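Ticket #4471: structure output looks truncated?

Reporter: J.K.
Steps to reproduce: submitted the chain below (364 residues) through the standard prediction queue, then opened the result file.
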Amino acid sequence: MSKLGDLGARLHRGEVGYDFVGNRKIWYAVSILITIAAIVGLAVRGLNMGIEFQGGAVFTTPKTSVSVSQAEEYATEASGHQAIVQKLGNDTLRIQISGVDTGKSDEIKQTLAEDLKMAPEKINADLVGPSWGDQIANKAWQGLGIFMVLVVIYLAIAFEWRMAVAAFVALVHDITITVGIYALVGFEVTPGTVIGLLTILGYSLYDTVVVFDSLKEQTKDITKQNRWTYSDIANRSINSTLVRSINTTVVALLPVAGLLFIGGGVLGAGMLNDISLSLFVGLAAGAYSSIFIATPLVADLKEREPQLKALKKRVLAKRAQAEHEVELAADGPLDDEPEDATPAVVGPRTQSGARSRGRGGKRR
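Returned output as attached by the reporter:
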């Protein structure tokens, strides 16, 4: 068995483990700081919305030797708006300009043809109206909202409402961080980004549900014992599924990292960044939230119940008594008490008359 497999088996049996729930205040603080940074980045820089959401024009040129930077300069001068240019695999260019209507599009196309030294009819122009872009954005938000509501309802039925609340908080945490990273990096938000967001929410829920299922199974008769608190069992559930969560996350991140860093970074296929960044950040955030946010939050909510609060009090009292007894045993007997509790015999020992007689029964 490999070292990782041996560690997973020991974690599952409870032989080793890390106190995730006990250190939950640290994870809460870290998550709050990251979330605040994401919100600040979103408020200061905003999202770079694609033309699918705000309208505009996309021009596709035939094969050309013009560089991306030069094409961006030409397109910006021709339109008066910031242009995004991507070089495609066959040396063609994709020029995207937001906030352009139909009349302005024809002028831009004519100017680009002159600058790029090609016939205007060879440049393909696709227009996206602002109203259609608003409709797409509204549908995306509606889809996300319906997804969140259905998730909460399902978890409340399959588990309980406290687990549903914890999973919802973890999902909001993942979305906020992913959207904030998009704002800070400046990547374009496209329908592919929305698809990526919905996908990573599924991955995040998968890890969370695995831990919740283990926690539900181990806490069926928790109030009938005085050895473990709910937080103890929650911590054990995290540790028992930790290696599985790490393995699934790493396996999912490897191909996404290939799309993001090799496809989008090295090969220059910028369109891959739209979906790969949301997947990469979301998968990592989802694995973090399922371990450090969702389950500790469930433990906090559950231990507010009267029965589990009383159980925690009994368990802690029992542990304190056991620790006190161990300390007394370690200290040894007191100095003013003899180690042998048997009382000492003082003076000569008096024998009975029956024992002083001989076998014949006469006294000597």
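Triage note (M.O.): checked the attachment and the full token line is present. Confidence is low (pLDDT under 50) at residues 337-364.
Status: closed, working as intended.
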